[in-house]
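Quick start: what a row looks like.
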Amino acid sequence: MPPRWWHVVLRGPAVAVEAMAGLLYQAGAQGVEYEDGHPAVAPYTDEPVSPGAPFAAAYFPADEAFSSRLQLIREVAAREGWRVETESVASQDWVDAVRRAFHPLPIAQGYGVVPAWYDRSPFSPSRTIWIDPGLAFGTGHHPTTMMCLLALIREGVRTRRVLDLGSGSGILALLAARLGAREVDAVEPDPMAVRALTANIARNHLSDRIRVVAGELDALPPDRRYEVVTANLMTELILRLWPQLAARLEGEASYAILSGIGEERVGEVERAVEATGFRVLDYRLWQGWAALVVRPR
């Protein structure tokens, strides 16, 4: 674990939040925190929460690559008129900040996510997902992640082979296994996220059904096929990778969950999906983010 991290914050108008988040991902961030200017209302919170000033923020390791990452961020931000703020923080401060904000989270049908440092779960053992995100992305609180979790429960994965692309902390892969998936391939390129992912799989005693693949999509055997694919990624990555993902889906009942899509870009993704012989079966929207469930025609 790097001894220190850089916290980089981009500030701009609400309409630019997805673009700011996309820039941070392009610079190498593994997870992005944001405020999109939309109020949080029921059913996603018990008490209405007023929006704050729009921003996107991420943590980067304080290594030799950071200066070039920051240069890219500053160049694009200057062109777009966004403000850039940076702060050096200790690794433990980063982890402590995540822990303070992470509490047990109900999903649906009795399933829930519980921080690994809690002594007990409010959910039944077979429906509890124990998570320590470490330096990875994925506690279930982000709208894009929650929409994926809900879609997995709604659509079902029992006895199916599942691909979770960009697995992060492993939260989607873990839920798929809890729901009865036959096999799950959790693909994750970031070494620090892979460590958190592997630990979370062991913590939930699901190593017999979840296989960690350290790398990108092309790290999988070319002939490996799936009945369910989850891809909680930024819009640009979904558009670029969708033809490859579509080719890995097998069977008339197969489906993919595509999330991390900005509301204004749903049309682009839908056209890309239709161009490969798939159709949008279900479309959900939450706080400016969209999640699509797509199936073969």
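That is the whole record. The domain at 4-98 is CATH 3.30.70.260 (Alpha-Beta Plaits). The first strand starts at residue 4 and ends at 11.
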